[in-house]
């Protein structure tokens, strides 16, 4: 279902009534996978998400929101889910074409701004410091400790960023080799790196010391700064995966930044203040960074012509190709 902003606003207002929010000022925030609006009502603000049909099921969204509730109860800084008048976390609104749109509402994180953004990360102008990334690494370690203690909550249903999900034939975000801008030589290079990476990921295993429930999109754009506090938002990609994949996600877009090696050291050091990260995992850092990059190429391949896809094709493809060359070269040197 293609939905324009007018239709999205109609659905948003219908959903807000279910949450007891009748008289609101509604402001468009963004549209990527989902439509996101800010609703202001009675001196309070709320984030309203209209989920793209087919992206996540009711059970999957319920899993995400259940974890947000559990994390907040533990004192970990995340947005608070809001219940409908009848005590539900999700509502389904008639889309007007025979289908429905799933909607949820979170309390807006007031007085906060994103820690960083991908554009400034990628062009090297980001003002973030190693100290900032040390804090982010510690945040990720604390998150993983909470998630490990929570385990799989009842009804857990989320995608797995495992070997199949990252580099398998049915990768979660699509086939990176299908991206049209790749040459035959590019595809051959990436295919070789993917085969090597699949073997290394299998060897890493999925024990609780290396693998578990993760955020899966822990970029500085999804970390809000509120005073001295860091607040983690946007659990839309939330699922199971390697802890090291989480750290690779933090830093992928900073790969071209001149201080990238310092940022890597800082994230790992910060993480280790909260949770062990052994050398066996760290040795796979180049491969996990490559895995993260491949997911972005798969995402772009699935959405040809979109503005973000074009940007990924122009700017991220060269980075991923270099990561693949370095990764394969490193393996040849070890043989």
UniProtKB/TrEMBL annotation:
<keyword id="KW-0418">Kinase</keyword>
<dbReference type="Pfam" id="PF01636">
    <property type="entry name" value="APH"/>
</dbReference>
<dbReference type="InterPro" id="IPR050249">
    <property type="entry name" value="Pseudomonas-type_ThrB"/>
</dbReference>
<dbReference type="InterPro" id="IPR008266">
    <property type="entry name" value="Tyr_kinase_AS"/>
</dbReference>
<keyword id="KW-0808">Transferase</keyword>
<dbReference type="GO" id="GO:0019202">
    <property type="term" value="F:amino acid kinase activity"/>
</dbReference>
<dbReference type="InterPro" id="IPR011009">
    <property type="entry name" value="Kinase-like_dom_sf"/>
</dbReference>
<protein>
    <submittedName>
        <fullName>Ser/Thr protein kinase RdoA (MazF antagonist)</fullName>
    </submittedName>
</protein>
<dbReference type="GO" id="GO:0004672">
    <property type="term" value="F:protein kinase activity"/>
</dbReference>
<dbReference type="InterPro" id="IPR002575">
    <property type="entry name" value="Aminoglycoside_PTrfase"/>
</dbReference>
<feature type="domain" description="Aminoglycoside phosphotransferase">
    <location>
        <begin position="37"/>
        <end position="277"/>
    </location>
</feature>
<comment type="similarity">
    <text>Belongs to the pseudomonas-type ThrB family.</text>
</comment>
């Amino acid at each position: 279902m293609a939905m324009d902003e007018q239709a999205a606003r109609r659905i948003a207002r219908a959903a807000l009534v279910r949450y007891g929010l009748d008289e609101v000022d509604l402001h468009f925030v963004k549209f990527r996978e989902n439509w996101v609006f800010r609703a202001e009502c009675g001196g309070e603000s709320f984030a309203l998400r209209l989920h793209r049909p087919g992206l996540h099921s009711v059970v999957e969204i319920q899993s995400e929101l259940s974890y947000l509730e559990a994390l907040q109860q533990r004192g970990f800084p995340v947005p608070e889910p809001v219940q409908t008048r009848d005590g539900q976390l999700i509502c389904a609104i008639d889309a007007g074409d025979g289908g429905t749109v799933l909607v949820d509402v979170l309390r807006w994180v007031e007085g906060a701004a994103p820690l960083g953004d991908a554009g400034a990360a990628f062009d090297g102008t980001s003002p973030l410091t190693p100290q900032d990334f040390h804090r982010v690494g510690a945040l990720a370690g604390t998150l993983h400790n909470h998630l490990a203690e929570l385990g799989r909550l009842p009804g857990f249903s989320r995608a797995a960023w495992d070997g199949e999900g990252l580099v398998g034939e049915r990768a979660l975000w699509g086939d990176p080799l299908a991206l049209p801008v790749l040459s035959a030589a590019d595809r051959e290079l990436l295919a070789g790196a993917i085969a090597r990476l699949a073997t290394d990921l299998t060897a890493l295993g999925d024990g609780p010391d290396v693998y578990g429930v993760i955020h899966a999109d822990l970029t500085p754009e999804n970390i809000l700064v509120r005073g001295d506090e860091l607040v983690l938002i946007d659990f839309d990609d939330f699922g199971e995966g390697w802890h090291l994949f989480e750290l690779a996600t933090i830093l992928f877009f900073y790969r071209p930044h001149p201080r990238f090696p310092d940022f890597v050291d800082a994230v790992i050091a910060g993480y280790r203040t909260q949770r062990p990260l052994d050398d066996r995992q760290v040795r796979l850092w180049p491969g996990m960074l490559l895995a993260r990059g491949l997911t972005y190429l798969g995402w772009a391949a699935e959405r040809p012509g979109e503005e973000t896809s074009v940007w990924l094709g122009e700017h991220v493809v060269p980075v991923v190709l270099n990561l693949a060359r370095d990764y394969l070269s490193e393996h040849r040197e070890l043989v």
